[in-house]
Amino acid sequence: MKRLILTAALAAAAATAGSAGAAEIVRGGPPTSPIASVVTVPAGYDTIYVSGMTPPALDAKGDTALTATFGDTKTQTLGVLGRIEEALKSQGATMGDVVMMRVLLVGDPAKGGKMDFAGMMEAYKTYFGTATQPNKPARITSQVSSLVAGGMLVEIEVQAARKPK
Predict the structure, then answer these.
(1) pTM of this prediction?
(2) Helix 117-124 / helix 73-89 crossing angle, nearest 10 deg
């Protein structure tokens, strides 16, 4: 009898472990939306937190014109996303593993002090929701008054989740 109970318990444990291992990240929302409105990460995934990344300098001289050092919003977003991609790669993850993103945009003087949401989205769409990388994170985009250095228009932080190795 004990042997029968032990066998049943082991079979149940194996079935539970198998279904937990098969659980996948679920992203919800309209298919045409550039972001996921909800992302569910099942238990057992590794979580990777990437601190806010700012754009790499294009001009090492540090020109005093607002966008001369770092470029426009689209250029800065591409630079920031490239830095995030490298950070994720160092942890064995990819942009497809990003489940949450926070985007901070400074108002662009060339846009009357308003954030260049369209410029950010042009760059964003080269990394997310593409044929080669269809995953889209949940996201928030906010306008802030300034970032750590003059001329910076973009800072992005992400959280990623991947199956343990």
Answers:
(1) 0.82
(2) 40
